[in-house]
From TrEMBL:
It comes from Streptomyces hainanensis. Residues 46-272 form the Alpha-carbonic anhydrase domain. Residues 29-51 are annotated as: Disordered. One of its GO terms (molecular function) is zinc ion binding. It catalyses: hydrogencarbonate + H(+) = CO2 + H2O. InterPro entries: Alpha_CA_prokaryot-like, CA_dom, CA_dom_sf, Carbonic_anhydrase_a-class. This is carbonic anhydrase. Residues 1-29 form the signal peptide. Keywords: Lyase, Metal-binding, Signal, Zinc.
Amino acid sequence: MSSRVIRARMSALAGVATLAVVTATLTSAASPSAEADQQTEKRESVHWSYHGRTGPDRWATLSEDFAACGEGREQSPVDLPTDAAIGASSDAAITIDYRPVTADLVNNGHTVQANVSPGSRIVVDGTPYELQQFHFHLPSEHTEDGEHTAMEMHFVHADAAGDLAVVGVLMEREAGESAFTDLWPNLPTEEGGEAAIDEAFDLTEFLPEGRDQYRYDGSLTTPPCTEGVRWIVLDDPVSVTPGQVTAYRHIFHKSNRPTQPLNDRVLTFVED
Ligand SMILES: [Zn+2]
């Protein structure tokens, strides 16, 4: 049942019933199969968010499956301190080999995610990872010397074993040219909304020209916060216009997990 229908029923009954009674009426009126569906849905997707009682500092308490969000020692995102990163030879730079892609966009309630057609990949220390999807956060999740940029883009890749490598691109608010002009009008604004981009477009336009990169071992930045993710964050940002930032903020007001302790991990800076 949509929340719109529930709201309509509530307002229709508002004169004669309290909220609690309305809720009970709706529950008992639901068919057994609808209730079973709701229970299945609850098991499959525990509600989490970026603020309040279901926000980042509570994720670990929302489900046993989210334990890593609280106990993990190699969590993402992290701050990228320009002075403390350990320099590495350019041999350690990843190779980015993106091809023109088509994409299916979906608003999943946390981000706008673009599931892309196959054929694009990165190579990390000799291992190829195939690009699966890209998505956005506002403001940025990674910080550089404690400073956020307006947004951050994540390109999520998987190797043959299913292990993940994510390339993070910081998006700096800047008036003028933006690579996102064609994409932005397609972003689905409603949760569950979808849009298809059937004409192949060039993903490399979303990357900065400079490929200096931070590398570290981290996690998913959303529940279940699974570790074992290889992170590559490009040092140079790309531009996003103030209007595009505002438009995205109207879809998701805030969608960044706070930075996590580096603990005993090594943060490497690779000049490409
Ligand atoms: Zn992300």
